[in-house]
């Protein structure tokens, strides 16, 4: 049996749905995405493109999380294509709750499909509602079996 203590080094995985990794990894991920999109936009200048995420949402989110009350100065990076139009869609808390319910339904369906359609000889279900070091130990112990 392998045991990890809480102070041992462990790599944190990134949940691409919510990017729960460390701040530097999230920033690098979003910046790389912005760069890739910008290169694509340069090649499609005659086409209308609608993006859910691009540099403005990345930088605004980072600034909102920083809780700094300093005067905010935003200047567009010269290596990214600037859009002709930026639209911010405000969603109130009631609508956010509706969307969360939809996400919960999706996750229940995802769980059902995993548990019922992946061959049981390959599938190992691990309770993710426990401390990370216990989850990591459970995963490492699967390799011992």
Textual characterization of the structure:
The protein has 145 residues and is mostly helical. It folds into two domains: 1-82, no CATH class; 90-145, no CATH class. The chain contains four helices and no strands. It has helices at residues 23-43, 55-66, 93-117, 132-144. The relative contact order is 0.13. InterPro entries: P-loop_NTPase. This is NadR/Ttd14 AAA domain-containing protein.
Topology:
Layout: H1 23-43, H2 55-66, H3 93-117, H4 132-144
The amount of helix comes to 40-55%
Strand content: under 5%
Please give the count of helices.
4
Biggest sheet architecture = none
Radius of gyration: 21 Å
From the spread of the alpha carbons, the general shape counts as elongated
Number of domains: 2
Name the average pLDDT. 77
User: In terms of structural class, how would the helical and strand content be classed?
Assistant: mainly alpha
- Secondary-structure element string: HHHH
Annotation, overall tally of beta strands: 0
Distance between the termini: 9 Å
Q: Which stretches of 5+ consecutive residues score pLDDT under 50?
A: 9-17
Keywords:
49% helix, NadR/Ttd14 AAA domain-containing protein, mainly alpha, 4 helices, 145 residues
Would you kindly provide a brief summary of this structure?
The chain has 145 residues and is an all-alpha fold. The chain folds into two domains: 1-82, no CATH class; 90-145, no CATH class. Helix content is 49%, strand content 0%.
């Amino acid at each position: 049996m392998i045991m990890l203590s809480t102070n041992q080094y462990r790599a944190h995985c990134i949940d691409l749905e919510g990017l729960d990794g460390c701040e530097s990894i999230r920033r690098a991920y979003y910046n790389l995405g912005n760069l890739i999109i910008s290169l694509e936009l340069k090649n499609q200048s005659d086409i209308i493109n609608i993006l859910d995420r691009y540099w403005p949402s990345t930088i605004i989110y980072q600034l909102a999380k920083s809780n700094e009350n300093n005067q905010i100065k935003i200047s567009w990076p010269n290596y990214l294509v600037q859009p002709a139009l930026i639209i911010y869609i405000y969603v109130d808390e009631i609508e956010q709750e509706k969307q969360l319910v939809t996400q919960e339904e999706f996750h229940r369906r995802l769980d059902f499909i995993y548990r019922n359609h992946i061959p049981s000889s390959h599938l190992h279900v691990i309770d993710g509602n426990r401390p990370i070091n216990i989850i990591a130990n459970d995963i490492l112990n699967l390799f011992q079996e």
